[in-house]
Amino acid sequence: MASPNDKAPCLDADLAAFVQGGVSIVAASRVGKRSPVIARAAGCRVSPSRRQVTILVSSSQAAAFLEGIRNTRAIAAVFSQPSTHRTIQLKGIDAAPAPLQDGDHALIAAYTHAFCEELAPLGYHPDQVRAVLSCEADDFVAVTFSISTAFSQTPGPRAGEPLVA
Q: Taking the CA of residue 160 as centre, how many other CA atoms within 13 Å lie in the half-sphere pointing to its CB?
């Protein structure tokens, strides 16, 4: 018998590479009476099963977002490539903060470099991008969630359609 998690959406190899590349990553949760809170992530890793995603955020810059995660465990994360507007949204209902794993600081550095490369042709100087993503190394925290739903959000006639791996 299949477990409920066997039917959970997962990312195909292309989408797993996309979310781990130099894309803009913004995540949202909620606090209080459904007041939205957001955070910009500085990297992403995908589990080997491609059913779980971990984003890396600054705990000081994302304090309200992390409060929302702790209280509701609900998350919506948007991954968007600025040069093409290719965008996907992943949602989860079991998000939880955790300490970074070995290799996460290298992942943050690689993500920052890739995001700088993505934005440079659009006129953004790497120093601007690094300033937006910067924080003390020990300030980062991981937020992991299982993908409960996934959608294409690229502008156009297919925006909002569910993604199927």
A: 2
What is the C-alpha to C-alpha distance for residues 78 and 54, in angstroms, rounded to an integer? 13
Q: How many Cα atoms within 13 Å fall on the side-chain side of residue 21?
A: 18
Residue 63: inside a domain: yes
User: The domain that contains 142 carries what CATH number?
Assistant: 2.30.110.10
Domain count, the chain: 1
Largest CA distance in the chain: 53
Mean pLDDT of the chain: 93
The pLDDT tens digits for 74-111 are: 999 999 999 999 999 999 999 999 999 999 999 999 99
86 three-class SS: strand
Domain that holds residue 137: 4-152
Tell the residue number behind the tokens 């995660």, with chain if given.
69
Considering the entire predicted model, what is its pTM? 0.92
| Pair type for strands 52-58 and 149-152 | unpaired
Nearest to residue 64, comparing CAs of 92, 91, 87, 97?
A: 97
User: Does residue 27 sit in helix, strand or coil?
Assistant: strand
133 and 57 in contact (C-beta within 8 Å)?
Answer: no
Considering the domain boundaries, does residue 157 fall inside one?
Answer: no
Residue 162 lies in a domain: no
In a domain, 131, yes or no: yes
